[in-house]
Amino acid sequence: MFNRDYNKNPFIVIWELTRACELHCLHCRAEAQYHRHPLELTFEEGKKLIDSIYEMDNPLLVFTGGDPLMRPDVFEIASYAIKKGIRVSMTPSATPNVTKEAIEKAKKIGLSRWAFSLDGPTASIHDHFRGTSGSFDLTMQSIQHIHDLELPLQINTVVSRYNLDQLEEMVKLVEKLNCVLWSVFFLVPTGRGKESDMISAVEHEKVFRWLYEVSKRVPFDIKTTAAQHYRRVVISEKLKEKQQNQTIRYLDALKEGATGSIDGLGRAPKGVNDGNGFVFISHIGDVYPSGLLPIKTGNIRKTPLHTIYRESPIFKQLRDPNLLKGKCGECEFRFVCGGSRSRAYALTGDYLESEPACVYIPKSLRNKENKTN
């Protein structure tokens, strides 16, 4: 798992089982609808997809949507994957579909983890962001079911203008809810997400530094999504704390196992990015570098997943940090960070452009500036 070659196999696969969902979230990248699409992958097609995922060195598999529970065969699909030995997680929407009976059924088949979204410490903030009154209360009820059945809990939070000033309160709530992982997403303006909802580059940096300090005092793990430059902050801070030379130790960041690795993220030992260790399959079988980078690279109904992932020119470009443009292309952290390719695409139209939400000036550019001065 940890010596995985991202040129051949992904670290994590996200499968959007359906786009059907009863919520109407402001940021929804899927622009989810109330009804299932008639061309969704069938159960048999899903089994073939799972077989192909397993053959790619058995990566992590996450069922997402929409709301995965809107598919009546979701537990049969999960059971098929789990029996093959795949570690499966699910991110359902907090709707009346999340009954204690449904969670108990998932536990019996061996679902490894449930993840629920909480985007504010109060119902008013969360419900506004999720576009549905009562979502907060349903989420809290679902979390109680998870604890009653003694399942590990992951909480997902999207950082945006709506909750930026409430993050300290969010930490208190996440700790109170006894989760094992707080997954902090940084909004990318795609789908229903708007650029005006995104926090600024300076605010990203402040939140990263705050998150790192939080990570040292809370009992749960923290990981980020669409915030690859958080790795730069963590590595820099750890080097400072150890009073080591400020040269970036790529071999440590790329090769050490997740536990105790220098990145401190507790997940992949090297930076997962759009198309680089990460692949997304839509409800109708379209393949993307991620759900936030809406550039179709193929469809599993026509081309095997491993062929698309390994041979698509777009995937190959995304896995070559030397192709990055602007300051990302000159940055000494490009092999462990690389910036969010989805955010670069959303804001510039070019997935190889610099990360728009990064304030860091690479050492090489600082040296050039000093020479001209």
Question: How would you sum up this structure, described in words?
Answer:
By secondary structure, the chain is α/β, with parallel strands linked by helices. Helix 1 (43-54) packs parallel to helix 2 (74-83) and helix 7 (201-215) crosses helix 8. The protein has helices at residues 43-54, 74-83, 100-109, 123-130, 135-148, 167-176, 201-215, 230-241, 250-255, 305-311, 313-318, 326-330, 341-348, 363-372; strands at 12-16, 60-64, 88-90, 113-117, 153-159, 181-186, 221-225, 278-281, 286-288, 298-299. Strand 2, helix 2 and strand 3 form a beta-alpha-beta unit. A 10-stranded mixed beta sheet has the order 7-6-5-4-3-2-1-8-9-10. It has 14 helices and 10 strands. The longest helix is centred in the middle third of the chain and has 15 residues, at 201-215. The model is unreliable at 253-267 (pLDDT under 50). The chain has a single domain (12-311), classed as Aldolase class I (TIM Barrel, Alpha-Beta Barrel), CATH 3.20.20.70.
